[in-house]
Amino acid sequence: MSKIDPEIAAFRRHMADVSRDFPPFGTLPPETTRQLAARARATLPNLPTPGVNTNEGQIENVSPPMRYRIYRPAGEVTGVLFYLHGGGWTIFGVDTHDRLMRAYADQGSIIVIGFDYALAPEHVFPTALHQITASISTLVEDLSEEIGSLPVFLGGDSAGANLSLATALVLRDTYSVRLNGLMLSYGVYDSRCENASFNAYSSPEYMLTHDEMIFFWKRYIPEATSRTHPQAHLLAADVHALPPCFFTIAECDVLADESHAMAHKLQEQGNDATVRVYKGATHSFLEALDVAALARKAIADQLEWIASKS
Questions:
Q1: What is the pTM assigned to this prediction?
Q2: 253-266, pLDDT tens digit by residue?
Q3: What gap in Å lies between CA 88 and CA 78, rounded to an integer?
Q4: Quick one: CA dihedral 151, 256, 227, 35, positive or negative?
Q5: Which positions ≥6 away from 182 have C-beta within 8 Å?
Q6: Dist. CA 18–CA 181, nearest whole Å
Q7: Could you give the CA distance from residue 107 to residue 163 in angstroms, rounded to a whole number?
């Protein structure tokens, strides 16, 4: 079992301390859970990005209507990144991931568009997937003067990585939007939750446990027999002809093995899949970008890859 990076460990201890008095999330109404999760994230440092301007909008032609936020960097723009936050399909949103999306826009000179997609259990699979695929198509058209011929990327962390890859499958088959790449951070690809990394890293010390992942799957897809759907259980999907993918894998993460398996499957089916493993990193480690050099290194690697595919 690997040792956690000291700065990531300090981040984990901070998150544990600020949420110490919270009741178990499974015992609370969903909206209360989200409020508490957001309160905990609001205690993290937030380094300034004065060159990044933001504005919000709402996509009305999806059900339910979906809020989005656009981050525009100062100076020349080199690409567009649609970003899908993590949170087990049940918590978080553009506000909890604001720091990360600002960093991508600021450091990568890219427009970042973050989606507040519909959350479970109020909205189960495939509601969010349908929202996201339709919204990307809509915004690429509505922002055509600004986006023009810029390369378009799609990415996300954890459940957001799952939704990113699922969206790419739908766009490949049904939409005209061409993606230049997928940026997939410690993603969810296997609904079975049965592999060695679950045995090795299933404790609060590593930010995500086996029981929490099972809870998230049950919220997202209540009917057990439906969890093998290839747009959710992505290891069962036909993944031919997808855009290049960059896998950010945290070594000390219950999801590490399924990330490796997903990357291997993509490569077997002829796709360009780049894998980077971050030693001593836990699930959610990118959220430590303002306090941990390892998180900043991963973000720099991601942006370097995006630049290479632009």
A1: 0.97
A2: 999 999 999 999 99
A3: 31
A4: negative
A5: 153, 154, 155, 164, 165, 168, 242, 243, 244, 245, 246
A6: 36
A7: 24
For residue 196, give both structure tokens.
Answer: 């060695």
For 1, counting Cβ atoms within 10 Å of its Cβ (0-12 exposed, 13-18 middle, 19+ buried), the class is exposed
User: CB of 191 within 8 A of CB of 221?
Assistant: yes
Alpha-helix runs per DSSP H in 120-209: 127-142, 144-147, 159-174, 196-201
Long-range contacts at 44-47 (CB < 8 A, ≥ 24 apart): 44/14, 44/99, 44/287, 44/290, 44/291, 45/290, 45/291, 46/99, 46/290, 47/99, 47/290
Distance CA 56, CA 74 (A): 17
Report the DSSP beta bridge partners of residue 203.
Answer: 208
Structure-token pair, residue 116: 């507040």
If one counts every other C-beta atom within 10 angstroms of the C-beta of residue 284, the result is 23
pLDDT one-digit tens code per residue, 62-114: 999 999 999 999 999 999 999 999 999 999 999 999 999 999 999 999 999 99
Q: Give the C-alpha separation, 152 to 180, whole Å.
A: 5
For CA atoms 260, 227, 197, 202, give the dihedral sign: positive
Per the listing, tokens 């826009």 go with 105
Nearest alpha carbon to residue 164 among 231, 216, 97, 118: 231
